[in-house]
Design a protein that fits this description.
By secondary structure, the chain is an alpha/beta fold. Among the domains are: about 220 residues, Muramoyl-pentapeptide Carboxypeptidase, domain 2, CATH 3.30.1380; about 60 residues, Roll (Membrane-bound Lytic Murein Transglycosylase D, Chain A). The chain has ten helices and 18 strands. The chain has a four-stranded mixed beta sheet. The chain has a three-stranded antiparallel beta sheet with strand order 2-7-8. A three-stranded mixed beta sheet has the order 3-5-6, with no helix packed on it.
Amino acid sequence: MPHPEDDAAQAPTSVQAPAPAPVATAPDPTPAADAVDVADAGVSREVDEPAVEWDDDAGDGDDVEVGDGGDDDDGGDDDDAMDDDDAFAGEDDEQSVLGEIAAADIVLDPGEAETVEAVLPTIHPRKWIRHRRAPRERLEQIAHRYDVPVADFREWNGISPDTHNVKQGRRLRVRARRLPPPRRKLDYTVAAGDTWWSVALRHGVDARDVRSYNWPYKGKMAPGTKLILWVDPIVHDWITDGQPPETVDPGQQVRRGAVGIGPPDDGRLLNGVEIPPSSTYNLRLPKSAYGTTYAVSEFVAAMADFEKTGGHGRPLEIGAMSRQNGGEIGTHRSHQTGRDVDIRLPRKPNVARFRPLTPKRVDWGATWKLVQVLATHDVAVVFLDFDMQKQLYKHAKAHGATEAELRKLLQYPRGRGAARGLVRHSDGHVRHMHVRFGCGPYETECVP
């Protein structure tokens, strides 16, 4: 259980992502556009896949090279320092979204693996490797990928904190805690109807990066044109193993391909997926209702389970999650990687929505049920003001909660600085709770 203040398996002989679809040999690098076989349209073909190797007998100082950096240069004390009401404000021009389907009717498809450790086991002892920077690969991404602190990674390579990038193809030393496969180079043949967004979404890449790989990119969306892509094999193969993401009905299913990069307070969201509308909850800020495939799936499943308990009798009010591309959002310190979501505390049935939400107007029974449900899902932490925890504690105890359950779920009464309980104190979380979900199993650069 991570503290809200905080920003062993044996090494295998090879690292394998989920099995990719069969691919053909690398195409002729200089075909005429009008000579492309129609069967190639919309098809990705693997090119120069770099090997992932290391010496199991290597000592601590031995270097192992990982990756192929390509040939070309790049183209052109609280968790949230904010007022409680800011979580539901800042977008006055937006309307609430109330769907007609229940959360239980939404199809969830986050993949088969349960944890990122199942996909990328931690290695013991840690190994020194050399990583060659791929096109558009950020320094922070490389550190996150090998599960090492960014500051340590910079120190190992003599890179100052104010240096944002290094030359493509540079060999960088990493004392890795895990060994993911390096980015893989693909050739893709543009098909009719393709857009930069659809190609990026289908391969688990940022559309801005796809344009950069193919600079100058003007006119390159014509059918038959060859594009270069650099993909994360684990993310790419997870996506291609499921339904094509651009064909998924967002109101009925959570598509694959949305992943968080970095920690919640200093990261971004890749190809964010929108929380689907539902009669179980109200999306108060639709432009900030995006998250990772895993977090949105966990959220929707939790809402469906809450509904099964009897729910609240009215839709829960949902505030900010993340913008579609993540990053900073309003005055929030977190909410940057699509794993944090704000939920307004449920009101008593006779309390009008416009009335200030004081402790006496909170439906503590529904709140306790909601916390119990969240505890059955992959929730890392729930932030709620310590004094509000006291009210929740008193209600739960009076209605039969055991001491063991109270200790497991609530920080109260052990002090607002105690690193105990699923629910922790954080200033500014008086009228809403802040729920943080875990990293998904295919999020190779997510930081808990």
